[in-house]
Specification:
Elements lengths: L20 E2 L7 E8 L2 E2 L7 E7 L5 E6 L15 E10 L2 E13 L3 E2 L6 E6 L2 H7 L2 H7 L6 H4 L5 H9 L4 E5 L5 E5 L8 E4 L9 E3 L9 E23 L5 H6 L7 H10 L3 E9 L24 E25 L1 H7 L3 E9 L4 H5 L10 E2 L5 E4 L3 H22 L3 E8 L10 E6 L2 E15 L5 E9 L28 E3 L1 E5 L13 E5 L13 E3 L13 E10 L7 E3 L3
Parallel strand pairs: 1-12, 12-21, 14-17, 14-24, 16-28, 25-26
Antiparallel strand pairs: 2-3, 2-6, 4-5, 4-22, 5-9, 6-7, 7-9, 8-9, 10-11, 13-20, 14-16, 14-19, 15-16, 18-19, 20-23, 21-22, 22-23, 22-29, 26-27
């Protein structure tokens, strides 16, 4: 959700010209301001101009001027005391209507030492109240997204609230009762109030249009998400004597590798031994092969092997970066105003000590899964963290684009009546050839005790995007696919070199496997050194060095467009 509706969505009747309630401005009216400070009614001491100001996501302010009572007084006695401000409409000496305009707290007053007039500024204490709230309280107050990769760690309540608001087309401010309330940026389908020329003070209607360089209708958004992939690679060394069986070997015996030779070779290979199976020469028997000859095994202390399979393993931690290149476009604005582009980049890293993993020996982890390389892997990522990063980054840029399209302003002044105009209201104007509808974004009211004027200044935000087109909304992009190249071999069949006969091939000292000699050697034939050599393979750079993969996607961003028409007579 974005704002008070689904992300990128807006009512298709945004340009509705349905009018709201008409504002009734009498030819003249009597008014009075009632102010309570700390429960004390100070209305009779008011002088000069009393004013109230309010703006989206800002503190509500009230400024008062008080005449001092005769005698000695403490000028800071009002500091920190609650302030309540009412507008009263009078019919004769009777209060016909009383309307609350402000509730807050007095800040440090100032004093004109000549006149002794005390000026008091009161505020709804928006910033302080947010700063004093817990993150849980703020999260319950403000719907929004938060990702460390976008905003960093949470530092204080006020900043946290601002970050949450930056992901929603919403404003958080205080009402006349001093309570927090959320208001959507988007104008209501039907205006709350309609103003004609009769309700607008002469020569106060002003239209300010956003400039082209303020618009943002295309954003190239890059989001990087980094994590460690833990690889557990297994490799098998297999060797079998060429005879294929004990009896064939016995008929023309040769030297054999021993169990100690095998374990020594594996120890030098620098991979962990995960499993070992072998076939050793059998125990002594009177006639094992049916040839009438006895077999006596003299090698039981260190078994001689006819065959073995050794499974070894190695672990590496590989840093992976998933890059998402997302393009956000407001199609109607692009058509109307041309490309007004911007860029943004956010990144997040899931911290993990890969060195500890690489230094561990052990069997295949139970939670590991098999990948396309044949490795058993554990990704140290957090799927919801990745998804939240993408959602938050998108939401921030969506709101930034929306904000850039609501910078046109329509402002005017109107007499203060029984209506309390506020930031929750949508206002329509039908005056002086102007037809417009927008949400109140700022307001100010002033009561002048000297001139008798009571006037409100209202400012509307107008969202303009050209042709209105519905957006497709935000859908999480598919994860990018990494290219790690070809899968490595998983097994090595070790060779056998037997010397001591003229038929023996030349000795190859680099050839992995077993080398030895026949039991009955031919005189003067070359003999081979007896050894068992095993070399573990290198792990390819693309399987251990940092790797990156990219996913690209384009989003059509839908924004509302407010009514704004000018008529020339």
């Amino acid at each position: 959700m974005l704002g008070l509706g689904p992300l990128n969505s807006f009512p298709m009747n945004t340009l509705s010209v349905m009018q709201g309630a008409a504002v009734v401005v009498p030819d003249s009216q009597a008014w009075r301001v009632r102010v309570l400070i700390g429960g004390e009614d100070v209305s009779d001491r008011l002088t000069g101009v009393a004013s109230i100001e309010f703006e989206e996501s800002g503190s509500r302010l009230c400024t008062l001027r008080l005449l001092p009572d005769a005698g000695v007084f403490e000028p800071d006695a009002f500091t920190g005391r609650p302030v309540t401000f009412y507008h009263q409409r009078l019919e004769g000496d009777v209060v016909a209507a009383q309307l609350l305009w402000f509730t807050g707290e007095a800040m440090q007053p100032s004093v004109d030492l000549g006149s002794k007039v005390v000026t008091i500024t009161a505020t709804c204490q928006r910033q302080r109240r947010l700063a004093d709230m817990t993150t849980e309280q703020i999260a319950a107050l403000i719907p929004g997204d938060y990702a460390v990769g976008v905003f960093g760690e949470i530092e204080d309540g006020e900043r946290y609230a601002a970050d949450l608001l930056s992901t929603r087309a919403l404003a958080l401010d205080c009402g006349a009762d001093g309570q927090f309330r959320l208001t959507a940026w988007e104008a209501a389908p039907v205006a709350h109030y309609t103003f004609t020329a009769d309700e607008i003070i002469d020569d106060t209607l002003r239209l300010t249009l956003a400039t082209a360089d303020q618009l943002l209708n295309r954003v190239e958004l890059t989001v990087e998400y980094r994590y460690q992939r833990l690889r557990h690679r297994e490799y098998t060394f297999a060797w079998e004597h060429p005879a294929g069986s004990f009896c064939v070997w016995l008929a023309d015996n040769t030297q054999l590798p021993t169990l100690s030779m095998l374990t020594g070779a594996l120890d030098q290979a620098n991979w962990s031994t995960l499993g070992l199976t072998y076939e050793a020469l059998p125990t002594s028997m009177p006639n094992p092969c049916g040839s009438g000859g006895a077999w006596i095994n003299r090698y039981t202390a260190d078994p001689h092997l006819l065959e073995f399979n050794a499974r070894v393993g190695a672990r590496v931690a590989q840093a992976l970066t998933e890059t998402y290149k997302l393009t956000l476009e407001v199609d109607g604005s692009l058509t109307a105003y041309g490309v007004r582009g911007g860029t943004a980049r956010y990144s997040d890293d899931v911290e993990f000590d890969g060195g500890e993993w690489e230094g561990e020996d052990g069997p295949r982890p139970e939670t590991a899964v098999l990948d396309e390389l044949g490795d058993w892997i554990i990704d140290q990522d957090e799927p919801e963290r990745r998804n939240n990063l993408l959602r938050t980054a998108y939401a921030v840029e969506y709101v930034r684009m929306h904000a850039s399209h609501r910078l046109s302003r329509l402002a005017f002044q109107t007499p203060i009546t029984d209506d309390v105009f506020d930031l929750v209201h949508t206002v329509q104007v039908e005056a002086l050839g102007v037809r417009a509808k927008g949400k109140l974004v700022r307001g100010a009211a002033r009561w002048d005790h000297d001139s008798g004027e009571a006037v409100a200044e209202l400012e509307l935000a107008l969202t303009r995007v050209g042709q209105v087109e519905a957006g497709g909304g935000f859908i999480l992009p598919e994860r990018p696919e990494f290219d790690f190249g070809e899968a490595p071999e998983a097994i090595a069949q070790l060779a056998t070199q037997l010397g001591g006969r003229f038929t023996s091939p030349p000795y190859d000292e680099d050839l992995d496997g077993f080398a030895g000699n026949y039991g009955w050697e031919t005189p003067s034939a070359e003999g081979y050194p007896r050894r068992l050599q095993i070399t573990t393979p290198d792990i390819a750079a693309e399987h251990r060095d940092p790797a990156a993969a990219t996913r690209e996607q384009t989003y059509s961003v839908g924004l509302p467009s407010d009514l704004l028409l000018l008529e020339v007579a």
